[in-house]
Specification:
This protein is of the alpha/beta class and 340 residues long. It is built from eleven helices and 13 strands. The structure holds flavin mononucleotide (FMN).
């Protein structure tokens, strides 16, 4: 209710300025213990046990909103059952030149080409270590823009080693459209080699630290439908513990003619829903119960969330829906899903 008053003010600002203002307000409310008011009262649900972790509910925050892990307390107070930070890269990097994020309010959508703007994995570690939230926190890792694609594995291994002891799970992001050639890593042969190498390093780090951390792989919705089965098989056989389906799309279905439709970047929100659902369905079939699947892409209502669970997603993540629906969105989803 209150968010409908604030939204026009936030939406009058440049998207990145609005992001900063919204988080400044949320952090303040979190410090005062008030951010949980947005969630409202939610019926108790059975925790979900997956990948050796306990999730108080199935609704998580997708990567990219809190890239540098500055806002964990406020986000946890909104009711999320898990939070994914990142994408973090081994070295800090500024991302692409601005403007690089565009709102399409008529479509409840965003186009972004942020390009992994982040302070680097080492800078986020102290905040991750000091976190006082009682939900799993995943760390999504990627490669620096300046690292040649042939050396991508070096970046993933460096970031994995840095966050391994601190993350509850780690996501390998090979699906952002905004880092040149990154999505080429999804080709079955490449993905098999990359994920095997990462999984092997994960097993070594598990022995070293005494804790095994699950490794999820996040894929794009733009993989050729005929190849999804092979790609997913390669990822699971290489040792991944979960698949996250999916990232943003480079397609523009449903938004053609919009003033921002030709901006380069990944499209998220309502126009992604149908494509993400279609890909999710294929991913669930290919996975065949071997590992959990996290469904993400265009969730903006309880019906969208329910449909993804019905398609076989074990957990959900949201991003763009939260920006359009406001901080009460998580509580709304939890109430709508209660009893499932
Ligand atoms: C502005 C913006 C930045 C994002 N940054 C990342 C990122 O750094 N890493 C990542 O894996 N996904 C990133 N995503 C993708 C989201 O995590 C999610 O997969 C996608 O937006 C689809 O979900 P949605 O329709 O609920 O937003 C980003 C999305 C948006 C809109």
């Amino acid at each position: 209710m209150m968010y409908s008053l604030f939204r026009p003010i936030l939406f009058s600002l440049d998207p990145e300025a609005a992001h900063a203002a919204a988080f400044a307000a949320l952090d303040l409310q979190a410090q005062l213990g008030l951010a949980k008011c947005w969630r409202g009262s939610v019926p108790d649900t059975e925790p979900v046990h997956l990948m050796g972790l306990t999730f108080p509910n199935r609704v998580g925050l997708a990567a990219g909103l809190d890239k540098d892990a500055w806002h964990l307390s406020g986000l946890a107070q909104l009711g999320f059952g898990f939070i994914e930070v990142g994408t973090l890269t081994p070295k800090p990097q500024p991302g692409n030149p601005k403007p690089r994020m565009f709102r399409l309010p008529e479509h409840e959508a965003l186009i972004n080409r942020l390009g992994f703007n982040n302070g680097g994995v080492d800078a986020a570690l102290p905040r991750l270590r000091a976190r006082r939230v009682d939900v799993p926190v995943g760390v999504n890792i990627g490669k620096n823009a300046t690292t040649p694609i042939e050396r991508a594995a070096d970046d993933y291994l460096a970031a994995l080693a840095a966050v391994y002891a601190t993350a509850d799970y780690i996501t390998i992001n090979i699906s952002s459209p905004n880092t040149r050639n990154l999505r080429d890593l999804q080709a079955p042969d490449s993905v098999s080699a990359l994920i095997s190498t990462i999984a092997r390093e994960g097993r070594r780090l598990a022995r070293l630290t005494g804790h095994a951390r699950p490794i999820a792989v996040k894929i794009a919705p733009d993989i050729d439908p005929a190849a999804i089965n092979d790609v997913v098989n390669a990822i699971v056989e290489a040792g991944a513990d979960a698949i996250i389906s999916s990232n943003t799309t480079i397609r523009r279905d449903g938004v053609t003619g919009h003033v921002y439709a030709n901006e380069t970047g990944g499209l998220s929100g309502a126009p992604l829903t149908a494509l993400a659902d279609q890909v999710l369905k294929q991913v669930v079939k290919a996975v065949a119960g071997r590992v959990p699947v996290i469904g993400v892409g265009g969730i903006r209502s309880v019906e969208d969330a329910r449909r993804k669970l019905d398609l076989g997603a074990d957990l959900l993540q949201v991003y763009t829906g939260l920006l359009y629906r406001g901080p009460g969105f998580v509580g709304d989803l939890l109430r709508g899903l209660a009893g499932r």
